[in-house]
Amino acid sequence: MASLLKLPLVIGAYKLAEIEPTLLNQEITYTGTPDLYGIQYFAPKEKLEVGKKYSVQELMERSIQNSDNTAAQLLFNY
């Protein structure tokens, strides 16, 4: 996912959090899908760990700060 596509995703999540304040703290368990690390040109230093829970806020930060396509796609699917 291109970095310019991640920004509207994160902005949309923040707008939704204005209506649903608990959104940013909601947790998503990474099951290993999606896994875009193999096709990502600039792979992040830290990958999501299978079985670990991540808050929406954490995934948003990883998407923007680390250019993590897998985190962004996980958010998009949520």
Write the layout of secondary structure elements.
Layout: H1 3-19, E1 27-29, E2 53-55, H2 56-65, H3 69-77
Antiparallel strand pairs: 1-2
Helix pairs in contact: 2-3
Brief summary of the model shown:
With 78 residues, this protein is mainly α. It is built from three helices and two strands; from the N terminus they run H-E-E-H-H.
What attributes characterize this protein structure?
two-stranded antiparallel ribbon; 8% strand; 3 helices; mainly alpha; 78 residues
Q: How would you sum up this structure, described in words?
A:
The chain has 78 residues and is mostly helical. Helix content is 46%, strand content 8%. It is built from 3 helices and 2 strands. A two-stranded antiparallel ribbon has the order 1-2. α2 packs antiparallel against α3 (69-77). It is globular and about 35 Å long.
